[in-house]
Amino acid sequence: MNRLYIFDTTLRDGEQVPGCQLNTIEKIEVAEALEELGVDVVEAGFPVSSQGDFDSVVALSEVLKLPTVCALTRAVEKDIDVAAEALAKARRSRIHTGIGTSDYHIISKLNSSRDAILERAVAAVKYAKKYVEDVEFYAEDAGRTDNEYLARVVEAVIAAGATVVNIPDTTGYCLPDEYGNKIRYLAENVSNIHKAVIATHCHNDLGMATANALAGIANGARQVEATINGIGERAGNTALEEVVMALKSHRELGVETNINTKRIYETSKLVSKLMNMPVQPNKAIVGRNAFAHSSGIHQDGVLKNRENYEIIDPKDVGIDENSIVLTARSGRAALKHRLSILGHGDISQERLDEVYSEFLHLADKKKSLSDGDILALVGEKNNQKIKLNYLQVICGKRVRQVATIRLDISGIKFEETASGNGPVDASIKAVKKIIAYSTDIDIEEFLIQAITKGSNDVGKVHIQVRYKGKIHYGFSANTDIVTASVEAFIDAVNKIDMMKL
Ligand code: KIV
Ligand code: ZN
What we know:
Bound molecules: 3-methyl-2-oxobutanoic acid, zinc ion
Number of strands: 16
Strand order of the largest sheet: 2-3-4-5-6-7-8-9
């Protein structure tokens, strides 16, 4: 097998996305997760861009033991000095320097010429080599750079000492064949190419980032630059999990990575949570629905043999949950399977038929049925013991965020007040003060989605909680997202109670 190096740029290209900025502590949390995931290189930031980025590169250099820590620079001496200083404590360090090579960049961005840019590229690599052995050169906008000129630049920077040559499709313009041919052209026409690793760095503007990275690999690239969940500038970067799982699913490609795929889902959730970037439900590999079968025919097929409809075992990416979503299209086999998971495996055929007809009736009204609904159908009635009776929150800028909550629990009213770091946090803390056991409930996923656009929109809240090792889901929708959040939490809490844990 050929080894492919995974260069993660979640903390640099990913972090450039507005709203995704992390503080140093959060960056350390993500970097440690990436280390556990098994990435080879962590691009920790662009040190000259801000004090915060500089400090993060310093912190990650101190913390990371196995991956190479990489810092981005322009082909500017000051950038390289600052990057070298930030990387000083890294066990393995790399400077990633480069410059635009397409005529767009050369003429209308840099106001320069091809020959002058080639000289600057070589000078930057030589300068970086004074500090570190491992120097990666990026030819920005290589996707739209003339191949013959690109080959000249690549040959010159390798001669100057570059250990990795990065061929970014900065604008996400290339089609897979085009990008693959570019990599092959370099592999075949750069005389010293064997002295460096070719890297892909693909953006997703046309939805081709993963396909382009795979085309690059097929033509000789041995480093892929990617981000968790594919986050990154505009439409994002190559999604790390997609490339890794494509290679794992297609062993015939003969390329392997060091990634512990069982850590993929956890890492995806961590990045989504810390960077405030919800993962689209149908996102390949890590989306909520990536392994959820809802049609009866598929469910039946999966129950007979998972591989009938699944090319990846969800456990391989760290997803341990049941993948059958019960809807009006589900058959008896799927219902029976879910009942057995819920402790009703011994149900008779006659009773199953009865429950199934009630199930179809209910499923016609609800989009999908929860475990609580199923248990209610077999007789464990969900009487929604806890109800939100009253909620008042004080929130805003420069005020203490305080919530007062009144819950109706089996007809008796309880009231509590709590403060938190925002109105939702304060409200949930108030609920937890009332329901003693809910302090042991961990919120694992919390997703607020607007249904349409506009400030008068209804917000839908999905919540996933873990209590004593079991997962429960809650849902609510309201024009007031704080109310929807509290109700979704209570919805999940009611399910725990009903299951008599
Ligand atoms: O997309 C790009 O060209 C980049 C470079 C800075 C590597 O992110
Ligand atoms: Zn990029």
